[in-house]
Amino acid sequence: MKSLEDLREMRKEVEKEMQTRKNTNKPKVIIGMGTCGIAAGAREILQAVMEEMDKRDLDIEVTQTGCIGMCEKEPLMDVKLPGKDRITYGNLDKEDVKRIIVNHVINGNVVDELVIARLEE
Amino acid sequence: MKELALHVLDIAENSISAEADNITIEINENTIENYIKIIIEDDGKGIEKEILKNITDPFVTSRNTRPVGLGLSLFKAAAKRCEGSFNIESDKTGTKVKAVFKRDHIDRAPIGNVAQSLISILLWNENIDLKYIHTYDNDQFIFDTKEIKKELEDINITDSKIINWLKDYIKENISEIRGGEFN
């Protein structure tokens, strides 16, 4: 079983990596976490993002927001790349999140069929 | 909500909106007396008296974007449905929400993925201190971010590697006190 001593080891690992990432202009991912989002599975969307970040060693700013009034399209996730439009994706599942991370966040290609709104830069 | 842990996440986010610095979450499972008690307590700015009276009415909310708020209403309904009870106390020093469920009631949702709910709260605001106390009959697991942050020193608790580690750590420890079952 994991103990807090293991956490100390993990801390050292992360500390080494931190020195190489001092990027302030990170991609942003925003997840809708109101009551509607949570009921629709937003917690699993957030989990999928964190797993992809860990697996692919990504430096992304992840934030959460409350209900924005598009409850019927939850779970919602926005992606904002530096200097690009803010894209809102809706009706997501964990597999969609993996696609969005790989295609959009990493390679800059918007996943058109999952887009529900676009806010121009 | 499909899990009690999702209610916990939802209610704790009210605490974040209330600008709490400390949130304490307690889950107490008692298999002998057949209940599950969940308490979410914060030191946020509290709910105004007028609003508090009817706070579990879906058309009463303290937010100002929209006059509908479902979180507390849903939590109360879930407890009542399981022959349980619901109680909320609030003043300027904080808010305490308590829900009790009859453990073996057919309508009781599973406790669910508490680890993921706690992690989601940490990710919302890294400055909040979260204390989680899970009791299963005579066994107890306590998770306290104050302790974790001491170990981490200058490393942020929301780093994806740390977060994923903490998630497994919480999961394993809850399973341990629950005799090998996580949820």
Instruction: Detail the poorly predicted runs of chain B.
Output: none
Largest sheet of chain B: 6 strands, mixed
> Count the strands of chain B?
6
Mean pLDDT of chain B: 93
Helix content of chain B: 25-40%
Our count of helices of chain A gives 4
Q: What is the 3D shape of chain A?
A: globular
Largest interface: A-B, 33 and 40 residues
CA radius of gyration of chain A is 16 Å
Please write the CATH class name of chain B: Alpha Beta
Counted by DSSP, the helix tally of chain B is 6
Structure overview:
- The complex is a heterodimer of chains A (121) and B (183).
- Chain A is an alpha+beta fold and 121 residues long.
- Helix content of chain A is 40%, strand content 19%.
- Chain A has helices at 4-18, 35-40, 42-56, 94-106, and strands spanning 28-32, 61-65, 77-80, 86-89, 115-119.
- In chain A, strands 2-1-3-4-5 form a five-stranded mixed beta sheet.
- The longest helix of chain A is centred in the N-terminal third of the chain and has 15 residues, at 4-18.
- Chain B has a single domain, classed as Heat Shock Protein 90, CATH 3.30.565.
- Chain B has helices at 4-17, 49-52, 71-81, 114-124, 145-152, 160-177; strands spanning 22-30, 35-42, 85-91, 94-102, 129-136, 139-144.
- The longest helix of chain B is centred in the C-terminal third of the chain and has 18 residues, at 160-177.
- The two termini of chain B are 15 Å apart.
- Classes of the chains: A alpha+beta (121), B alpha+beta (183).
- The A-B interface holds A 1-2, 4, 6-8, 10-11, 13-15, 17-18, 33-36, 38-39, 43-44, 46-47, 50-51, 53-54, 58, 62, 64, 66-67, 69 and B 1, 6, 9-10, 13, 17, 63, 65-66, 69-71, 74, 113, 116-117, 119-120, 123-124, 147-148, 151-153, 155, 158-165, 167-169, 172-173, 176.
